Amino acid sequence: MTARAVLLLFNVIETNFLRASSTSEFSHSLGPLRADGSPVVGKIGGDLTPEQGYEAARLVALGMLANIRAHLGSLDRVVRFAKVVGRVNATPEFMGHAQVIDGYTDLMVSVFGDSALCARSAPGMGSAPFQVAVIADAILQVR
User: Fold this and answer.
1) Do the bridges between strand 78-89 and strand 124-125 make them parallel or antiparallel, or are there none, so unpaired?
2) What is the pLDDT of residue 38?
3) What's 55-83 look like in SS3?
4) Per-domain residue ranges of the chain
């Protein structure tokens, strides 16, 4: 399946979940998309280097910023990050999951400062939907 076909599937798949929702907290998930809209696919430690994984995690953060802004109307409504889970699609022998997810965290800290510092985990996955390289979930406190 080509990256374009995967992107088209992302856009047309009917789901039984929301891309974003909010109460006093906000949670969101997103896989990495390049500027041209194509997803970053592959396994870190196999198809992709750790450095490419780091960049994929940054793309996840950029996409999440766009969706947070679209959903909340402004990034200024974010009070702080409570928790981030960054999942890395990796080969069984890969051990640098945390360094890959640093791409996500580094970008969020550059935007939100210390408000983006939070509890974080970075488990590996044997596979991912459409074989995207990185997926992240964040729980945010919003005003």
Assistant:
1) parallel
2) 83
3) HHHHHHHHHHHHHHHHHHCCHHHEEEEEE
4) 3-12+23-142
17 exposed, middle or buried (CB, 10 Å; 0-12, 13-18, 19+)?
exposed
Cα–Cα distances in angstroms (integers) from residue 52 to residues 7, 65, 71, 83, in the given order = 19, 20, 28, 24
Task: Read off the pTM.
Answer: 0.81
Structure tokens at 114: 């210390």
110's tokens? 């550059």
Question: Are the C-beta atoms of 31 and 128 separated by less than 8 Å?
Answer: yes
The size of the chain, in residues, is 143
Q: Torsion angle, CA of 40/41/44/47, rounded to 10 degrees?
A: -120
Looking at per-residue pLDDT, the higher value among 53 and 36 belongs to 53
**CATH 3.30.565.10 applies to domain 3-12+23-142:** no
In the block, tokens 């995967």 appear at 6
What CA–CA distance (Å, rounded) separates 14 from 127? 21
